[in-house]
């Protein structure tokens, strides 16, 4: 346990460095678009989100965030770079691997191809919302118990796809579990353990 | 490399009129984004102004009346899969929706986007072809109905002007009692674009095939109906049907090529195998 803590602390500091670099480049983007009239598209109607975006309210894991988003921001970028919720991973950034899976209004989506503004006002669930303080969500606990992760990079997306399945179907069959994670690629090959974990949570004990 | 962001603008349309008005100023629509965001990420999306049509109520929903089912262009694969009438009367569309991408793609990708993306390898269009779909297309100045069969005019070309949107896909309800066949052949079940896929419907009696429709993807610059092959099967006693001859005719109708997903030879062979499988299914059903 001790060792794990140290590791995650190290990781956090590496992330803050990356984030710092990210901010610098965003700054450059804003500088290039600054000449465009910000109010142009937003003056009449709050439903119209124009060139430089408007302030939106996002509901992530039950917490409200007010954030101004340029319209071309993806949900993954919003979560990771603006809201600092880096649990959601981005691997392919083009919808092919499922690492970035989050749940929006009860449906799993690839946050790397969903525009942030399309998720404004909707209920967004990410991996950070699962545990209750130190108490893991049953699905997370089952993942740990069944060794359903190795490098762990696919895991947040994998867990969210499984949660989405269980939310709609508390007693899935094995083929249903397989289907649910068919869009989540795990290069470490943890699938059999993931199946066991989900079956365990559903009370079916890994058939 | 990822696209250079400041070159893109996007406006969310609050209504169909609003979207069409913006499209008159040569803005391009984005729906679920599952095709466009891939291009965007690879730096291949043309820079410019885009209209987010994803929230327009007039493009949503599935309406059922006595003669037709009308599918809003924004209907997702998940919604198609779960719709009772589509399941019962248009199972090829359900099957296509099930094998498109993974769950997260099915939750976002739309049928309108699949049609307008105009890929000859798309999975839903063969199903739309065998069900005689037509499209309601709208612009700021009016609307038109185009038979889906005539919609794609060449590789990535279609009867859709820059200022037009697909509003609805209309399917006549006349296939309820027919036999339906759908098969996608690809590298793996999920997340893979197909090497080839085929949809078919057949109406037959114990003596003969009265009507048959066959459509294929990934064997020509557009998805295609195979009308010569269909004609060969029709109105013949089963004993007169030579499946080898049917396969020969099929090969005159398709123009498969080598590309990154498969080879010409493989596609021809598989297309023939699928025709065989469909015909076997018909004779099997008949013998039951
Ligand atoms: C990982 C992955 C797997 C995939 N697997 C499959 C698969 O198995 N089979 C398959 O067929 N496809 C697949 N696709 C492609 C894609 O998901 C589908 O083509 C989808 O239906 C596109 O819909 P969309 O709403 O996301 O389109 P968008 O990306 O929003 O738009 C696509 C095109 O259609 C235009 N458009 C959208 N809606 C309209 C409208 N109403 N009127 C006029 N033009 C419009 C847009 O301008 C754009 O040119 C996959 C994509 C990914 C990322
Ligand atoms: S990062 Fe979104 S699907 Fe791979
Ligand atoms: S655990 Fe390493 S990719 Fe899945």
TrEMBL record, chain A:
Domain 2Fe-2S ferredoxin-type: 54-130
Record's protein name: (2Fe-2S)-binding protein
Sections of the chain in a coiled coil: none
InterPro entries: 2Fe-2S-bd, 2Fe-2S-bd_dom_sf, 2Fe-2S_ferredoxin-like_sf, 2Fe-2S_ferredoxin-type, 2Fe2S_fd_BS, Beta-grasp_dom_sf, Diverse_Oxidoreductases, TAT_signal
GO molecular function terms noted in the UniProt entry: 2 iron, 2 sulfur cluster binding; metal ion binding; oxidoreductase activity
Keyword Iron-sulfur attached: yes
Keywords, alphabetical: 2Fe-2S, Iron, Iron-sulfur, Metal-binding, Oxidoreductase
Pfam families: Fer2, Fer2_2
Keyword Transmembrane helix recorded: no
TrEMBL record, chain B:
SMART domains linked: CO_deh_flav_C
Keywords (A to Z) from UniProt: FAD, Flavoprotein, Oxidoreductase
Regions crossing the membrane: none
GO molecular function: FAD binding; oxidoreductase activity
UniProt domain FAD-binding PCMH-type: residue ranges: 1-176
Alphabetized PANTHER family for the sequence: XANTHINE DEHYDROGENASE SUBUNIT C-RELATED
Protein name: Molybdopterin dehydrogenase
């Amino acid at each position: 346990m001790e060792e794990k803590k140290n590791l995650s602390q190290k990781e956090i500091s590496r992330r803050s460095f990356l984030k710092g670099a990210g901010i610098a480049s965003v700054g450059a983007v804003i500088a290039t678009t600054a000449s465009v009239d910000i109010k142009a598209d937003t003056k009449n109607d709050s439903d119209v989100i124009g060139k430089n975006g408007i302030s939106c309210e996002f509901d992530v894991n039950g917490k409200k965030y007010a954030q101004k988003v340029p319209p071309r921001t993806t949900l993954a970028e919003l979560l990771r770079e603006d809201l600092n919720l880096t649990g959601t991973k981005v691997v392919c950034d083009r919808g092919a691997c499922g690492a970035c899976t989050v749940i929006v209004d009860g449906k799993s989506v690839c946050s790397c191809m969903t525009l942030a503004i399309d998720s404004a006002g909707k209920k967004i669930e990410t991996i950070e919302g699962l545990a209750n303080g130190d108490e893991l969500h049953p699905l997370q606990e089952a993942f740990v118990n069944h060794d359903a992760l190795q490098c762990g990079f696919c895991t947040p997306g994998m867990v969210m796809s499984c949660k989405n399945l269980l939310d709609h179907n508390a007693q899935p069959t094995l083929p249903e579990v397989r289907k649910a994670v068919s869009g989540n690629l795990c290069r470490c090959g943890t699938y059999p353990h993931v199946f066991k974990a989900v079956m365990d949570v559903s009370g079916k004990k890994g058939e | 490399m990822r696209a250079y962001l400041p070159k893109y603008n996007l406006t969310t349309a609050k209504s169909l009129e609003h979207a069409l008005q913006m499209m008159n100023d040569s803005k391009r629509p984005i729906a679920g984004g599952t095709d466009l965001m891939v291009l965007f990420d690879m730096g291949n999306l043309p820079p410019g102004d885009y209209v987010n049509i994803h929230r327009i109520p007039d493009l949503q929903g599935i309406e059922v009346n006595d003669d037709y089912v009308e599918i809003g262009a924004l209907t997702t694969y998940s919604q198609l899969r779960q719709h009772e009438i589509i399941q019962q009367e248009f199972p090829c569309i359900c099957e296509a929706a099930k094998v498109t991408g993974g769950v997260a793609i099915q939750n976002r990708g739309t049928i309108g986007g699949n049609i307008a993306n105009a890929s000859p390898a798309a999975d839903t269009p063969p199903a739309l072809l065998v069900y005689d779909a037509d499209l309601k297309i709208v612009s700021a100045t009016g609307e038109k109905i185009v038979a889906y069969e005539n919609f794609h005019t060449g590789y990535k070309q279609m009867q859709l002007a820059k200022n037009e949107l697909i509003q609805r896909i209309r399917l006549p309800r006349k296939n309820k009692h027919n036999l339906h066949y759908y098969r996608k052949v690809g590298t793996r079940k999920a997340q893979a674009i197909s090497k080839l896929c085929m949809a078919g419907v057949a109406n037959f009696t114990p003596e003969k095939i009265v009507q048959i429709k066959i459509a294929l993807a990934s064997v020509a610059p557009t998805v295609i109906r195979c009308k010569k092959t269909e004609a060969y099967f029709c109105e013949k006693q089963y004993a007169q049907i030579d499946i080898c001859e049917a396969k020969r005719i099929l090969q005159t109708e398709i123009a498969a090529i080598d590309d990154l997903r498969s080879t010409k030879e493989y596609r021809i062979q598989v297309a023939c195998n699928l025709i065989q499988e469909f015909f076997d299914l018909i004779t099997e059903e008949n013998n039951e």
